[in-house]
Specification:
Helix content is 37%, strand content 14%. The protein is α/β, with parallel strands linked by helices.
């Protein structure tokens, strides 16, 4: 048995020793839930941790062990767990009613707060998730223009509807020729019909020339361009300076609706406000629901007027829980307690985290770079950070087991991250937690050096620098 295999076995055995209650819960859950969970992203081998509660920026598993939460429910829980303003608003509203079957003042109160934060959001509608929000934004663009084709970004994630699951960086798909056959083949998720490719075209991220080319060749057929200002599951790659400004110019020229999917990047400012690029439509979820399900789509008043029943042929929009009072109450509290100071705090934490991760890789003698913006970060193995989803795929190719071991070892160290590498912070996260996480990450890479030597020698750099830092307990205190 090689030293690398021994290291991998020790990490997995340690994980099993620390989480026996989660193992039992997994076995019980698998009798009802395929894979023992109801979210693909939160399932991993040998079994996922099952959590019983959250408090501030920490979560507790069924064995009573606490973890620093470095994922924030994939960016959704920006306020952390049990934030007093949010819990108070939910408790108060649940006594009044959750979904009363008609309009409430909470709808326009929440909408007014959003519109004050996002000038491009002149009019808006509510639904229940980011998936619904992007689906409705695409339909709105088609209804407004009378055209069918949507241009999306290769590796862009816009939820799980068919239009969004084209080259969405999900495993298990099959490749198909695109509407323009000289473009790189698109990947469809299982169950998505190839007929979708008559109405969706994908182009690489950070490539305005590719957008210009497609808009030129499909002039008069493109309804909208949808883009994440920072790739989500595609690896946390930020838009290059000037890229979205040029896409904005191209879409205006051709009468194409520009849609920013800011479900993940609202926590950055949102991105369009911070960088001064105004789309025609935007989508939001996560933060703006204060920890409860919500989706928002909206933008230009003339486009959104399609939903007014006073129009000759209005777009029909139904949703039993769209704009429900409970989510809006939590979201109103969240918006009132998430301003410039909180965003600046997340920006500082993110910068500290990324510089720390880069230093940790150097100290461990392992090639790797962090990417991201504000409180949204990823770490990629390799000498250069990816510039698009294809770069992310190349950095991950053949390294799935290594990345899984990093994830498990960090859990053993008392830090919860996403298994695919996303790292997000809460507004209640302090810099000592970031520093402790960076130290844990450095230890993780040092522990895994024998595995890297055996299976990925191309990632080895100089010998590790300096002695290992003392192990940390989950509460951030040095172990004794």
């Amino acid at each position: 048995m090689t030293p690398g295999i021994k290291v991998a076995q020790r990490i997995t055995e340690r994980y099993r020793t620390l989480s026996p209650a989660s193992a039992r819960a997994f076995d019980a859950a698998a009798k009802s839930l395929p894979g023992g969970d109801t979210r693909t992203m939160t399932t991993y081998a040998p079994y996922p941790l099952y959590f019983s509660r959250g408090d501030g920026a920490r979560v507790q598993d069924l064995d009573g062990r606490w973890y620093h939460d470095i994922v924030a429910n994939y960016g959704a829980l920006t306020h952390g767990h049990n934030h007093p303003a949010l819990t108070e608003s939910v408790h108060r509203q649940i006594q009044r009613g959750t979904a009363l079957g008609g309009p409430s003042t909470l709808q326009y109160e929440h909408a007014d707060l959003l519109r004050a934060r996002v000038p491009a959001l002149e009019r808006l509608r509510y639904c229940n998730s980011g998936t619904e929000a992007t689906m409705w934004a695409l339909r709105t663009a088609r209804a407004h223009t009378g055209r069918d084709v949507i241009v999306k970004i290769d590796g862009g994630y816009h939820g799980t509807h068919d239009w969004g699951h084209v080259s969405a960086f999900m495993p298990g798909g099959t490749t198909h020729p695109q509407l323009l056959p000289d473009l790189a083949p698109a990947e469809l998720a299982p169950g998505v019909p190839d007929s979708v490719l008559r109405a969706v075209v994908t182009v690489p991220f950070n490539d305005a020339e590719a957008v210009a080319d497609v808009l030129s060749r499909l002039r008069g057929r493109v309804a909208g361009v949808i883009v994440e200002p920072v790739l989500g599951v595609g690896g946390g790659v930020p838009a290059h300076p000037g890229y979205l400004e040029e896409v904005r110019r191209l879409t205006v020229r051709d009468g194409v609706v520009l849609i920013f999917d800011e479900c993940a990047t609202f926590r950055l400012g949102p991105w369009q406000v911070k960088h001064g690029v105004r789309p025609d439509l935007s989508t939001f979820s996560k933060v703006v629901g204060g920890g409860l399900p919500i989706g928002v789509f909206g933008g230009r008043a003339d486009i959104m007027s399609l939903f007014s029943p006073s129009q000759p042929q209005p777009v029909h929009h139904a949703s039993a829980f769209g704009g429900n009072s409970l989510s809006l109450a939590a979201g109103t509290a969240a918006l009132k307690t998430f301003g410039d100071a909180e965003i600046a705090h997340l920006d500082r934490l993110g910068e500290r985290l990324r510089s720390g991760l880069d230093a940790a890789a150097r100290s461990a003698g392992v090639a790797g770079r962090s990417v991201g913006e504000g409180g949204l970060s990823y770490f990629h193995f390799g000498t250069a950070p990816p510039q698009d989803a294809a770069g992310t795929a190349a950095a991950r190719r053949g390294r799935g087991r290594l990345r899984a071991l990093v994830h498990l070892h960090l859990l053993n160290e008392g830090f919860l991250t996403a298994r695919h590498g996303l790292m997000c912070q809460h507004i209640v996260t302090g810099t000592p937690v970031i520093d402790a996480f960076v130290e844990a990450f450095a230890r993780t890479l040092r522990v895994l050096r024998p595995y890297v030597a055996d299976h990925h020698p191309e990632l080895l750099r100089d010998r590790p620098v300096g002695p290992p830092t003392p192990p940390m307990e989950p509460n951030g205190e040095a172990a004794r």
